[in-house]
Write a structure and sequence with these properties.
Alpha-Beta Plaits, 4-stranded antiparallel beta sheet, single chain, alpha+beta, 41% helix
């Protein structure tokens, strides 16, 4: 079934000029880029986007990192988009990510792992609405 999902290219990857390479991998793996924008995350968006992590020990570091530079948001579509994108981005811990995945190539640490991908259809709908409210 064709689905939409959300990809965020995080500040560490945008600062290293890896946007084009990451988007090329996305397209080469059958995803269609439906919407694309560059933006900066503020406190309010970080708190809303990562609401499930508020109050956790790592939240401050996560929020600070996500507010540290430009982010590219992409609404993607394809068959089984959520699952297929999660497979392509790899494990959250880039040291454990399968070779050839986005995080194995571009991730620097578990915190600075280059990209975010929605983890469920419900999360994708919520996150797409936050990043592309128009």
């Amino acid at each position: 079934m064709k689905q939409n999902t959300l990809l965020l290219i995080k500040p560490n990857a945008t600062k290293k000029h890896q946007i084009g390479e990451i988007l090329q991998m996305i397209e080469e793996n059958g995803f269609v880029i439906e919407k694309l924008k560059m933006f900066e995350m503020d406190n309010a968006l970080a708190d809303t986007f990562y609401v499930e992590h508020l109050g956790k020990g790592f939240y401050h570091e996560l929020s600070e990192f996500m507010r540290s530079g430009k982010i590219v948001g992409a609404m993607l579509s394809r068959e089984d988009a959520v699952l297929k994108l999660r497979e392509l981005v790899g494990n959250t811990d880039c040291a454990k990510a399968a070779l050839g995945t986005i995080r194995s190539i571009y991730g620097e640490s578990i915190g600075e792992n280059a990209v975010h991908a929605s983890d469920s259809i419900e999360s994708a709908k919520r996150e797409i609405g936050l990043i592309f409210p128009e």
